[in-house]
């Protein structure tokens, strides 16, 4: 292709995150904000400007941006998980926006394989294809229920009978804004549904694996602990024993109502979706 069709290019796909140490986007140091001059004297990040070495964004854009010959990018995910939460199943949809690419002669299937080869065991991308700005809006505005797998530690231990107390069908929780996000979210009570899918013993009686579906915007860790009654009911209050969430995985991103999303489309040929 000889002429550049646009100063911006959009590439869409899904990512799976297989580790518990990767934020979705660049994790700038909260003190110096990664500012080139200010970070030099910053004690918090010791001049690095960031609090983690990598992010999903950086691992993906290192390869894509390298091929497109631009480092300017924005990463848009369909929501995000905490950095210590794995993203499994068929992955989370994302769109990356590249500004002023200098090269368009790229093979997305090859680049996808390259990203996966470089990040084996940490990050996996699927179904990379050309996209457009309208998809950013769709991804940002769409609401998704999620299925989670949580490793629970039960104080004092629990039995299978305790978990029988979890209701079948949907339960509505009232969640007061958790402490950990109180600095950036309005303090109010939200109602969200959850559905308990299954439970199995990992190391009886203390460790159990619980899978549950939750409505968009549910604070899952608090839905488990109850956070001192600020979420009611919670797994802890329903089984009558304090439960702590040791590890959390997103098992699947669902549609707003809690059904499976349609399967990802087959990769498009080069040029589709470019205006
Ligand atoms: Zn800093």
Write structural notes for this entry.
This protein has 275 residues and is of the alpha+beta class. It has two domains: 134 residues, Alpha-Beta Plaits; 108 residues, 2-Layer Sandwich (Alpha-Beta Plaits). It contains six helices and ten strands; from the N terminus they run E-H-E-E-H-E-H-E-H-E-E-E-H-E-H-E. Strands 1, 2, 3, 4, 5, 6, 7, 8, 9 and 10 form a ten-stranded mixed β-sheet that branches. The chain is globular. The chain binds zinc ion.
- Most strands sheet: 10 strands, mixed
Query: Percent helix among the residues?
Result: 10-25%
The proportion of residues in beta strands is 25-35%
What CATH calls the topology of the largest domain is Alpha-Beta Plaits
Structural class call reads alpha+beta
Number of self-contained structural domains:
2
State the CATH architecture of the largest domain.
2-Layer Sandwich
Beginning-to-end CA distance, first to last residue: 13 Å
Oligomer: single chain
Radius of gyration: 21 Å
N-to-C SSE series?
EHEEHEHEHEEEHEHE
The geometry reads as: globular
Mean pLDDT: 93
Pick out the low-confidence regions. Answer: 271-275
- State the CATH class of the largest domain: Alpha Beta
| Ligand list | zinc ion
Number of separate strands: 10
Number of helical runs?
6
